[in-house]
Amino acid sequence: MTTPISQPHRKPDLCAMSDNSAPGGKQTSSWIETPAHSDFPIQNIPFGIASAKDRAAHPCTRIGDTVVDLGALAKAGLLSDLGIAPEAFQTTSLNALMRHGKPAMRKLRQRLGELLSADNGTLRNDAATRTAALLPVADCTLHLPIEVGDYTDFYSSREHAFNVGTMFRGPENALMPNWLHLPVGYHGRASSIVASGTPLHRPKGQMRPKPDEPPVFGASKQMDFELETGFITFGGKPLGQHISVEEAEEHIFGMVLFNDWSARDIQSWEYVPLGPFLGKNFGSSMGAWVVTLDALEPFRTAQPEPEFQPLPYLQGHGKQAFDIALETVLTTPEGSETVISRSNFKHLYWSMAQQLAHHTVNGCNIRCGDLLASGTISAPDPSGYGSMLELSWRGTKPITLADGSERKFINDGDTITMRGHCEKDGLRIGFGEVKGTILPAL
């Protein structure tokens, strides 16, 4: 049996506000209180969509435990000289803002950093605007941050691909011949991507429990999570043109936490020859906060060394990965919590830039608000496997939870919570969490 992972020992906070660079590049802190170990210091400035009891959903940012309503700031004229249409701040998704492009979003993030900085009294001293714009996160409902256009899911963790291939084909044929030469992916279903906290019903479909017997229909008995991140695009190039590895990050708005739920028994019966369908399209969960690549820049690192030199269109220069610590928590219906996996984004074999370059090399056009997910992110160590399929090794090695119960896959009533953050030299930049509960089949 696999034992749960113990909770990490957290270092004492160096200061409530780090002295690392804010969006404007200055050494600064904020006049808004930020709790110790917060994912959202002034150096982050993520983007999301939030509503409250007395107001509609608007674009927002977050600092500490405070949500900042960008619609209220825009109405007060504090965002009027950025080249962004005023109505873009009153919408229920970030798409209208993103359509202004990366330079405009950088200007917006810069302005927000200035307004929230301790040495700037413009917003702090304007009581009416401050009251209208600042809300406790506990009083807000966080929504899906974007209207997803198209959704592509990659399969970019070598550890995950090797583990799954070993289970189904044996270690000698674990990786398919193409895997080390291109970022494998498939087109998923955008309509069933839901906001963090949205429960999902256990899906139904065809399964074949035994190889020599006919298939049966029913509710999946092998519900699983997939620990992933996703990146969201600005508009790309016209149909027929491609985005190079070197250009790719200019077309990326930011990253989110992502749980691409899977029904393994449905998936294993249907996936040959065309890939996942009903075992995947019943639902995926997206985190509420989009963290920009600019915020993640201090945590840039090298990706794993390739076994083969990729073809020229997939070759890039410099560090293309980010050191993002990831964890998955399973909470039972009775409330017992167990950290069941710890992994890191830096383990991915294929980078986001390579994924986007491959996606478009045939002339496929990328649109504003498209979502490209990483695929399951598994660490080399078994404690960092990014799915129940791997953690329980296809159900043959049940994991033991903190309350003594066991799991091979996810039970009805179980909640899966994923968290992610970077931390270096006293600076912590995080994503919050993405959470979802599995309900009984309808």
Keywords for this structure?
single chain; 442 residues; alpha+beta; SH3 type barrels; Fumarylacetoacetate hydrolase, domain 2; 2 domains; eight-stranded mixed sheet; five-stranded antiparallel sheet; 26% strand; globular; disordered N terminus
Q: Which CATH class of the largest domain is shown?
A: Alpha Beta
Helical percentage: 10-25%
| Separation, N- and C-terminal Cα atoms | 32 Å
What integer value in Å does the Rg equal? Answer: 22 Å
| Total domain modules | 2
Strand residues, percent: 25-35%
The number of helical runs is 10
The named CATH superfamily of the largest domain = Fumarylacetoacetase-like, C-terminal domain
Q: Kindly name the structural category.
A: alpha+beta
CATH architecture of the largest domain: Alpha-Beta Complex
Unreliably modeled segments: 1-20
Main beta sheet strand tally, sense and closure: 8 strands, mixed
The total of beta strands comes to 26
Q: What coarse outline follows from CA principal-axis ratios?
A: globular
Mean pLDDT: 94
Descriptive report:
The chain is of the alpha+beta class. It folds into two domains: 48-142, SH3 type barrels, CATH 2.30.30.230; 151-439, Fumarylacetoacetase-like, C-terminal domain (Fumarylacetoacetate hydrolase, domain 2). The chain has ten helices and 26 strands. Strands 6, 7, 8, 13, 14, 16, 17 and 22 form an eight-stranded mixed beta sheet that branches. The protein is globular and about 70 Å long. The chain starts with 47 loop residues before the first strand and ends with a strand.
